[in-house]
Amino acid sequence: MEVMNHASRFLLPPLPVDGDPSSVPAYALVVLNQRLPRFAPLLWKHARLRLCADGGANRVYDEMPELFPDQEPLEVRHRYKPDVIKGDMDSIRSEVQDFYSNLGTKVVDESHDQDTTDLHKCINFILDCAPDLDKSNLCILVAGALGGRFDHEIGNINVLYRFSETRIILLSDDCLIYLLPKTHHHVIHVESTVEGPHCGLIPAGAPSTCTTTTGLRWDLNGNGMHFGGLLSTSNIVQEGIITVQSDADLLWTISIKKPI
């Protein structure tokens, strides 16, 4: 079975690219309409394409200056200008839309489409309309994907399954979530300075009859998991490398450390 490697390098400052640039993921950032994580400027710096999903533009406009209290808000807003604003445009404030439009941000109104979420619309844009991104090495970071209304969270998790062949990472101030497809054996490189130790593996799409892990305090050894039965929640990262193999798609979640 083919191995898929995972690492949260986007939570660390970017490193100089030596040699082959394909060794670094082609990050795209989507900002949703929830509180910006404290590390949003770091995600912005990693990303080659930055999108706001509808009211996510309000968050960038209002909250990015709060992360730089010693700087002039207008200068911060100019520095953190999204490339694209896309969605059904029912949440973005008119003055925010006008501000970014005047700076050259592309605004894509898809209010005619009420069958997909704003995140789904943004993922489609990245996959279909961003030719400069290396799709084979693409990783989409979604800020503000967790917290707030539970139905929104479930909608965001559903996007992981609808685009299971694309690396998508849902982020909040407290944790991250991504999908481990059953088609691969997974090797997770834990960035212990910024994430962990709490973690979990959740069979949200379908039950697992056989899941095996290494590197956790409570490893699974061919165990089955399903809602109403065993779930690997409140587990602990024990080693720097975690391996996961399962006969079902699993959600991997790990806590993000707060600065001391």
From TrEMBL:
GO cellular component labels: cytosol
Localization of this protein: Cytoplasm, Cytosol
Q: Which residues form the Thiamin pyrophosphokinase thiamin-binding domain?
A: 184-250
Q: What is its EC number?
A: 2.7.6.2
Q: Extract the SMART domains matched here.
A: TPK_B1_binding
The annotated pathway is: Cofactor biosynthesis; thiamine diphosphate biosynthesis; thiamine diphosphate from thiamine: step 1/1
Pfam families tied to this protein: TPK_B1_binding, TPK_catalytic
- Could you tell me the keywords of this UniProt record? ATP-binding, Cytoplasm, Kinase, Nucleotide-binding, Transferase
* UniProt keyword Transferase present: yes
What name has this protein been given in UniProt? Answer: Thiamine pyrophosphokinase
